Amino acid sequence: MAIAKAERLMNLALCLLGTRRPLSKRELRESIEAYLEAGSDDSFNRMFERDKDDLRELGLVIETVENLEGEVGYLARRDSNRLPPITLDAEEAAALGLAAKVWQQARLAGAASGALQKLRAAGLPEDVDPYEAHGALEPRIPVHEAAFEPLMLACRDRRPVVFDYRKATAAHPEQRHVEPWALECWRGHWYLAGWDRDRGAERVFRLSRITGKVRSRGGAFTAPVPDVVTVRETVASWAGETADRSARIRLRRDAGYPLRAKATSVRELGDGWDELEIPYGHGLDAWLVEFGPDVVVLEPAELRADVVDRLRAVAKG
Q1: For residues 276 and 267, what is the distance between their CA atoms, to the nearest angstrom?
Q2: Above 90 in pLDDT, residue 159?
Q3: Beta strands in the chain (DSSP E)
Q4: CA distances, 262 to each of 82, 205, 257 (Å)
Q5: Cα gap 108→152, rounded to integer Å
Q6: Does residue 168 contact residue 313 with C-beta atoms inside 8 Å?
Q7: What backbone torsions phi and psi does residue 101 show, to the nearest 5 degrees?
């Protein structure tokens, strides 16, 4: 169905762009096979009006012209639907090239590569290498979670979603109804910020803990979308970045470099272990669990208990 509609829209656009005079509905119906197959005039009229609106929404400028006999015709003038010349300096070209290299996901990488090819065709100088200025950098945003693409589209289109989510402290996932706002990559993991309808509050979800498929739901958002969704700040506050206390941990030698970078003090214990003092805030237990057997919490006692509870939940599967 989607392919048939796309082909119909393309044929209509080509007809409107290729004509030098306005074409009537009758002429368009005779020129496009899908319209000829319409069962009745009413079916054709509804289909044509929808297609015309869809093309206009996509940016095609369609003029409606009435001739001397009072018959209405349609055309899309080329000069009204032509982009202005594109000119890029070396720095702008390098920025686009860098953006094209960021994505590892195949579908996004293909789109970025195709965009650069179109810029070349539009006049980007051949002597400008969009990668040269940043040849020493190899930026990557890894996207391994299957939930990324449907959530990205849902954020763009403002569509509510439903998915099964397993919290770090839970043995089994539970269904969540979410109005998605934005996606953010933080410490190599992707997070979704949105409005949790079941809890009536803003929540942040780690994509790697979404199980099964993300399903879209109809209807509008019930909560206002913030002008700026600070997913990074929210996740950071949950992971101890905005800490007001300290915790002592034992960390295996040559492990846990992110923890070492946050440590306020490091002391060698011998036997391959170090003792670190690190900032302690809400969510630090979830971060420590990620380092598995390389970390042992010494104090405070409540942090140690939280880490143990999370490890037991993971062990139960």
Answers
A1: 6
A2: yes
A3: 23-24, 63-66, 72-75, 161-165, 174-186, 189-196, 201-206, 210-216, 245-252, 265-270, 273-280, 295-299
A4: 53, 23, 9
A5: 12
A6: yes
A7: -85, -10
DSSP single-letter state for residue 14: H
Cβ partners under 8 Å of residue 258, min gap 6: 187
Q: Whole-prediction pTM value?
A: 0.48
**Per-residue H/E/C for 41-87:** HHHHHHHHHHHHHHHHHCCCCCEEEECCCCCEEEECCHHHCCCCCCC
Distance of alpha carbon 13 from alpha carbon 18, whole angstroms: 8
CA-to-CA separations, 74 to 44, 197, 293, in angstroms, rounded = 16, 46, 70
- How many helices and strands in the chain, by DSSP H and E? 11, 12
Residues 6+ apart with CB under 8 A from 7: 34
Q: What angle do CA 124, 127, 133 make, to 5 degrees?
A: 90
Give me 70's structure tokens. Answer: 């009072």
Confidence at 242, pLDDT banded by 50, 70, 90: low
* Tokens (6 digits) for 104: 């590892």
Select from 140, 212, 154 the least CA-distant residue to 183: 154
Computed over every residue of the chain, the mean pLDDT equals 80
165, 209 contact by CB (below 8 A):
yes
